[in-house]
Amino acid sequence: MRSPGAAEAATPDTEQTTSRADPGAQRIELPRQIGAYLSNPPPPYPPLSRRLGEQGQVTLRAFIDADGTASRVEVLNSSGFDRLDRAALAAAKDWRYLPGTRAGQPVGMWFNLPVVFELK
What are 5-49's pLDDT values in tens digits? Predict the structure, then answer.
């Protein structure tokens, strides 16, 4: 199972967005969940899933508030295993994030977050 920091690396590299058509557009940075100080532990691997050899990637869609908390988290793409999906949801709700910014100010915005469950 990859750590939350590893999961972030799998997101599209669109962290910074500006409009080329409008030179006065505000710089937007998407939320992130990297940073050693965030101390986001990987979700616990459900014991039954481990015994049954269940693996997969859950893609979550989370609304990250300006304070770095996830106020809403939902499954965007299932791993195919309900136990893994629920474990990812529970962990992501407790994680802390670096909020997205608009013109340097923290703002709430949606963020897609892949969580990988891999047996080793």
Answer: 433 333 333 344 444 555 556 787 777 765 444 678 899 999 999
Kindly indicate the confidence band of residue 54, based on its pLDDT and cuts at 50, 70 and 90.
very high
pTM of the model as a whole:
0.72
Task: Give the tokens for residue 40.
Answer: 């986001």
Distance CA 89, CA 13 (A): 23
Are 77 and 88 within 8 A, CB to CB? no
23 is a domain residue: no
**Residue 67, CA distances (Å) to 14, 30, 39, 43, 100 in order:** 21, 14, 16, 22, 10
Domain membership flag for residue 19 = no
